Each structure stands twice: as structure tokens, then as C-alpha cells.
Amino acid sequence: MYNFLLKKRSRIFWIIIAIFVGLSRIWAGVHYPADVIVGAAISILVAVFVYKVVPKLNVVRKLIAIYEKGEQTVLNKSRSKEN
After folding, report:
1. Measured distance CA(58)–CA(49) in Å, rounded
2. For the purposes of burial, counting CB atoms within 10 Å of the CB of 25, is it exposed (0-12), middle (13-18) or buried (19 or more)?
3. Which residues form the Phosphatidic acid phosphatase type 2/haloperoxidase domain (predicted)?
4. Which residues contact 61 (CB under 8 A, 6 or more apart)?
5. Backbone phi, then psi, for 44, in 5-degree steps?
6. 39 C-beta neighbours (distance < 10 Å), count
7. Which residues, including other chains, have CB under 8 Å from residue 36's CB and lie 6 or more apart?
């Protein structure tokens, strides 16, 4: 579903947007440069953690299995109504 975030062109686009948002926060005077830099660093660390660790957690796998089972149930019901 979120494969578009992993493509190189899209990734560069989102990085540029993030940089402009950070610069705009400094320009508007609502944050100091250190606030923006530390916020970006924390965000990057959390994103890497979530990308690497969360899919390996057993709880997440169980929740995804439950979701997919429910999704199949809903899709099968909607397909049977169309026929």
C-alpha cells in the first residue's frame, strides 16, 4: 500500500518538502534552528526503528493477520453482492 514512499523519486520529493517545512518554521519565528534539527533527528531515528523493528514483532504479525482475515471477509461479501 505504501510502496510509493519507498521509490527513489518519491523519497527525494518528501525529503525536500520536509526541509522546506523546517525552514518555514524557522523563518516564521515559531522555532529555533536547534528545535528543527533535533526534531528531524528524532523523527529519522523513530522512522528507522519502526521500519526495522516493528514488522518483526509477533504482536504486529498477529494484528495484520486479523486485519487481512477481516478484509477478505468484507471483500468476499461485496463481490457476492455484485454478482
Report:
1. 16
2. middle
3. 8-57
4. 55
5. -65, -45
6. 13
7. 22, 23, 25, 26
Exposure pattern of 47-72 as b/e (b: 16+ CB <10 Å)?
eeeeeeeeeeeeeeeeeeeeeeeeee
Q: Which helix (H) or strand (E) holds 32?
A: none
Q: pTM, whole model, 2 decimals?
A: 0.60
Nearest to 40 by CA among 58, 15, 57: 15
- pLDDT tier for residue 2 given thresholds of 50, 70 and 90: low
Give per-residue pLDDT as tens, 25-81: 999 999 999 999 999 999 989 988 888 888 788 888 888 889 999 989 888 877 777
